[in-house]
Write a structure and sequence with these properties.
The chain has 385 residues and is α/β, with parallel strands linked by helices. The chain has helices at residues 11-22, 33-53, 66-83, 98-109, 127-133, 156-165, 185-188, 237-252, 254-275, 302-311, 321-326, 331-335, 340-344, 357-376, 381-384; strands at residues 60-63, 89-93, 114-117, 138-142, 169-173, 192-196, 207-211, 279-281, 292-297, 346-350. It has a seven-stranded mixed sheet, sandwiched between helices. Helix 1 (11-22) runs antiparallel to helix 8, helix 9 (254-275) packs parallel to helix 14 and helix 10 (302-311) crosses helix 14 (357-376). The longest helix has 22 residues, at 254-275. It is globular and about 70 Å long. Bound molecules: pyridoxal-5'-phosphate (PLP). Pyridoxal-5'-phosphate binds next to helix 3.
């Protein structure tokens, strides 16, 4: 129940990768046949990734994952504009993943002007809020497509239009959305979009940044000039091949995925809200990615819940896998105006294609039991137990 953190690599993906781990080890930059073979495999993967999002193959730059794609988008625009005397301010939202927030903070330390837009209680960045904040000195607006904690899908097309009207570029971190819901970069109008392979049954450590044709960025990794000099370093050929296959699979099964995972998720949500008193679904009911269910269980601690669920063989999360290790309260829930109690009792259950209805039944019954047990020993016992 933690597919938002990562997903199993699909058999078809492993099959496609294996020859590039065993036999085809040529360096794609080599002129000889071994090199040309792996170079062709990268081009095929590039066109598969592009097809998933309605882009051109040359608009796809492979990276080491979503984090690097986000860093490249933000720093790439900021440094390019600073070097060419163009506007350099950046607007982002307070809901972003750390892969966006941390490079933003670093840019701020370097003297760039950053604005962090607030969100509604449902986790939506309202277009009117962006409209009020934007000015001609803004170079880039970066707002995530779907939130990794509460699953809320942002009104990207509208936000992108507002950015463009003011002369700014638009980037979206689509790591939690690409391959799960239909995305067409042309219809949306975005200039830059980050993707990650391991969220859609591909291997870890590989992702991509869509960069609209004609857009210039400064590289953040310099060296041998691979990926049109935007991302130097010998390519992760098996990873890229696997990511390409994962995108092809995701595109082919999109409708099936949405139907199956949304059905399972809705069943889970309805059962939890019915069976467990003092529980609440967080985020938007409607504008939400298929696999996300995020709850607050009043009177319990989400981390205790995770440990108890783990003892029952159930993998869950309080939100971002990265922030859990640092034990800091979720900045996303804070941005949505949640109280300390609402944040403490929060739990994310995220579903994938591999989950079954029987598993959901098991999760609901374990969750129900564990929440009751924890409430009995909680300081809020008299209120919720
Ligand atoms: N952005 C979002 C919204 C994410 O959920 C994640 C991963 O959890 C990332 C970026 C980072 O992606 P990666 O793990 O590929 O570096």
């Amino acid at each position: 129940m933690d597919s938002a953190a990562s997903t199993p690599v699909a058999d078809e993906v492993i099959e496609e990768m294996m020859p590039f781990l065993k036999r085809h080890y040529g360096n794609p930059s080599s002129i000889h046949g071994f090199g040309r073979e792996t170079s062709r495999a990268i081009q095929l993967a590039r066109s598969r990734v592009a097809t998933l999002i309605g882009a051109l193959p040359r608009e796809i730059t492979f990276t080491s994952g979503g984090t690097e794609a986000d860093n490249l988008a933000l720093q790439g625009v900021a440094f390019h504009n600073r070097n060419s005397g163009k506007p350099t301010s950046i607007i982002t939202s307070s809901l972003e993943h750390d892969a966006v927030l941390e490079p933003c903070k670093e840019l701020e330390r370097m003297g760039f002007r950053l604005t962090y837009l607030p969100a509604t209680g449902d986790g939506i960045v309202k277009p009117s809020v962006l409209k009020d904040a934007i000015s001609p000195d803004v170079a880039l607006v970066s707002i995530m497509y779907a939130n990794n904690e509460v699953g809320t899908v942002q009104p990207i097309k509208k936000l992108c239009e507002i950015a463009h009207e003011a002369g700014a570029l638009f980037h979206t971190d689509a790591v939690q959305a690409a391959g799960k819901i239909p995305i067409n970069v042309r219809e949306l109008g975005v200039d830059l979009m980050s993707m990650s392979s391991h969220k859609i049954n591909g291997p870890k450590g590989v992702g991509a940044l869509f960069i609209r044709s004609g857009l210039e960025l400064a590289p953040i990794l310099r060296g041998g000039g691979q990926e049109t000099s935007l991302r130097s370093g010998t390519e992760n050929v098996p990873g890229i091949v696997g990511f390409g296959k994962a995108c092809e699979l995701a595109g082919g099964r999109m409708d099936q995925y949405r139907q199956r995972v949304t059905e399972l998720r809705d069943y889970l949500v309805n059962r939890v809200l019915k069976d467990i008193p003092h529980s609440r679904l967080n985020g938007s009911r409607t504008d939400r990615i298929p696999g996300n269910a995020h709850f607050t269980f009043f009177g319990v601690n989400g981390e205790d819940l995770i440990i108890k669920l783990d003892e029952n063989g159930i993998a869950a999360s309080t939100g971002s896998a990265c922030s859990v290790k640092r034990q800091k309260p979720s900045h996303v829930l804070k941005a949505m105006g949640f109280s300390h109690e609402e944040i403490t009792g929060s739990l994310r259950l995220s579903l994938g294609m591999q989950n079954t209805k029987e598993e959901i039944e098991e999760v609901v019954s374990s969750l129900s039991r564990v929440v009751s047990e924890l409430r009995l020993v909680s300081p809020f016992k008299s209120k919720y137990a």
